[in-house]
Request: fold
Amino acid sequence: MTYTNQDLQQLLETIVKLRGHNGCPWDKKQTPLSLVKYLEAETVELVSAITNDDAENTCEELGDVLYILIMVSICNKERDAFGFSDVIQQVNEKLIRRHPHVFAGTTYKDEADLERQWREIKAREKQK
Reply:
């Protein structure tokens, strides 16, 4: 699989332009809260596409959900809360932390043991 940062960068730049001075009035007025209804609707459409094993529609709906997620991140960046790169970094760190059997050489006996480890790690995270 090949993923390029250029593809992601182009999408981020497109969305920033949509929210910019000469951008789209609709995009410019959106807030994280105003985007919730669209996120809910697009997520339902994505689940439907996946459930129907419709690859073409799944691809489209994933794009729609990704767009909204990036919009929420950009809105938060504009108010100095966090940005999309913070989201990426946090989820990557979480995935590594919650999968010590892949990244830290931890062993497990079976799937139940693996789930127990995951629950313990998640509980420790919530205590911080």
